Amino acid sequence: MTPPLLSTALDLAARTVPVLPLRAGKVPFGNCRACRDNACGGRPNMKTSGPCYCPRVCHGWAAASTDPAVLLGRPWAAVWVQAQAVAYHPGGAGLTVVDLDNTEAVMRARQTLPATRTVPTTRGEHWIYRGAMQSANAVRPGVDIKSSMAYARWLGPGTGTMTDLPEAVRALADKEPSTVRPAPRVITVPAGAREENCRHRTPAYLDRGIAMAEQRITEASSAVHTTVYRTFLAVLSAHGRCGCLTDTHIARLFTAAQAKGESSRHCTDAWANALTRLGL
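Request: output the structure for the sequence above.
Response:
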C-alpha cells in the first residue's frame, strides 16, 4: 500500500512540481553520512535536481525531484514511512509563494498585492503566483518569499485563479532589505586582529563552519531557542573577531533558524545577546 504522503508527492511530480518529504518539525531530512557537514560540496546536480550525485534525500530544496524512479527508489522508500509532510520547490515549478505568517500580513497583502491562488496555513496564507524569483526571508513583518532555492509545505491546491508574478512582489525583496539580517551590525574588530593571511579567508574553512552551524540548527529536535543562541555564540566565538564574517553568512544562519520556526525578532535578539556575551 502506498503511503498517503507518497501518493500526494507522486501526483505533484506528475504535474512537474519537484517534491521532497519533511520530517517532524516541518524540516527536511538530514544529510546522509557521505554528505554530512557539507563534505560533498552541497552543489545541486542540475540533471536530477538533487545534491551532488547522492541518491538520498539530502540538502533540502536541492533534493526535490519529479522523477518517480527517485521518489519510489530504495533510498527514499524508508523515508516516506517516517515523513510528516510533503514539501515542494516552488522555483523548480516556475512558481513563487508569498508566505503570509499572520492575520496582519494577510490584510496588508489584500491591500497591496494582486489577487491570486491562496492556500490557508496554520496562522495565515500562502499566495501562489506563476513565475519564479529569488527567495527572501522577512521582507516585511510576517512575510517570506519562497521560490528559487527554497521549499514550501504542500497544504493543498488552494482556491482562486493563479496569476502572473507581479512587480509588487518582486519589489518586496528589492525595495527594503530583509530583516533576516541584524541591524545595525555591531561586530567590532580588535586592533591587530585582522590579519592579511587570516585562516578564515580560506573559503573552505569558513564555509565549513557555517555549514556545520546550519546543520546543528536544522537537526535540533528540542530546545530550539537554546540551540540557536548557542550556535550563534559558537560561530561568533570562532569567526566574529577577524572581520571575515559577512552579512551573507549571517543571513544563512538566520534562514536556518527561521526554518525551525524562530521569528526574525528572536534571531536578532539571540545574535545581539551572543555579541554582548563575547564583548563584540
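The chain has nine helices and eleven strands.
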